[in-house]
Amino acid sequence: MIILGIESSCDETAAAIVRDGHDVLASTISSQVQLHAGYGGVIPELAAREHLRNISPVVDTALAKAAISIDQIEGVAVTSNPGLIPALLVGNAYAKGLAAAKDIPLVGINHFIAHIYGAFIGQPELLADAANFPILALVVSGGHTAIVVIQPDGHARIVGSTLDDAAGEALDKAAKILGLGYPGGPVIDRIAKTGNTSAYDFPRGLTGAAGKAVKPEHRFDFSFSGVKTAMLYAVKDRSLSDQELADVVASYQAAVMGVLVTKAGDAALHFNTPVICVCGGVACNSYLREKLSQEAGRIGRKLVLAPPKYCTDNAAMVAGLAWHYLRHGRSDGLAMPTNARLDH
Ligand code: KG4
Ligand code: ZN
Question: Do 143 and 285 belong to one domain?
Fold first, then answer.
């Protein structure tokens, strides 16, 4: 079955054509990063206007790359939540229009779950093997940071999440403080390579470090507001040399990623999951990928790293996941709601 996926929840307009959940015939992304860079974050109305401009060309490009016609599409999937409402609405209106015009099924997709699916695209054998379950997913993006336990029937339970900023947000805000531009993740990843990770002892929220006891209910939760504030004070009223900047960035990245690695490892042992997967934009981070590999090896867990092209926002994860839903008889009507929230 050939499914067209559409993604417009934030600042990328994406379309993908995926056969049977795993065979990606085309995945096209039009990024608005440059447009929003000057504002230090995504402006929802500007994003919506750009999506409107880009959506048809992006779908056309995907069809051309896959060398298929629109009439060969057998289902249309679209991110329906969570995200920025003005941005989501553009993709949702387009998908509904197409579903109605072509009389094909429509599937609304949860962006958060789609990110998890992104780690498994092209690897159906991993999902088919019951011995890999339950799977522990570390979802780390600009909007979310969570630990999720997934059962063989696809049921996903969030066992921990951030109490304040998401990990990507913590990187983006740090980059803004340091004048490094938006988004912060890729530039921090690059600069950190030349810095000393132990130059600064930045706080690692909710880990019990520095003698602060963690309440049992927050064992798998995250908090990144402390590390951001500590970094702000460390650089306040200083002009940093390139090496000093690299040291701040490397220490900051090590503090943020260190917490992710510690908590993912602890959760994999606690929930007895043979597989740890990591997905979402921050999963592109080279330091995180390396440290997670070491941790997974140490505790004897298999690590599934989402390929970088399916870490950041894309529509292949949307179209791929939709195939599983359609196979199990789930589709949505044209009255399908569009929602900003995750739990919808
Ligand atoms: O998944 P995504 O594209 O969008 C959301 O759903 O949020 O994630 C975007 C986030 C941004 O915060 C960006 O700074 C971060 O992913 N990111 C990275 C890297 N590349 C993107 N963070 C750390 N290292 C990277 N290499
Ligand atoms: Zn995303």
Answer: yes
**179 annotated ligand binder:** no
Q: Is 41 annotated as a binding residue?
A: no
Same domain assignment for residues 94 and 196: no
Is 334 a member of any domain?
no
In angstroms, what CA-CA distances link 7 with 82, 95, 312, 316? 11, 10, 11, 9
What is the predicted pLDDT for the residue at 35?
86
Q: Is the confidence at residue 106, as pLDDT, over 90?
A: yes
Kindly report whether the global pTM for this prediction surpasses the value 0.90. yes
Report how far apart the first and last C-alpha atoms of the chain are (Å, whole number).
27
Tell me: do 112 and 137 sit in the same domain. no
Question: At residue 321, what are phi and psi to the nearest 5 degrees?
Answer: -65, -40
**pLDDT digits 0-9 by tens, 293-340:** 999 999 999 999 999 999 999 999 999 999 999 999 999 999 999 999
Enter the ipTM. Answer: 0.98
Any known ligand binding at 205? Answer: no
- Rounded to whole angstroms, how far apart are CA atoms 16 and 10? 16
Pair 104, 319: CB distance under 8 Å? no
Residues with CB under 6 A from ligand 1: 10, 141-143, 168, 171-172, 183-186, 189, 280-282, 284-285, 312-313
> Which residue CA neighbors atom 7 of ligand 1 most closely?
142
155: left (phi over 0), alpha (psi -120 to 50) or beta: beta
pLDDT at 344: 61
Number of Cβ within 10 Å of residue 343's Cβ equals 9
- Ligand 2 centroid to Cα of residue 87, in Å, is 13
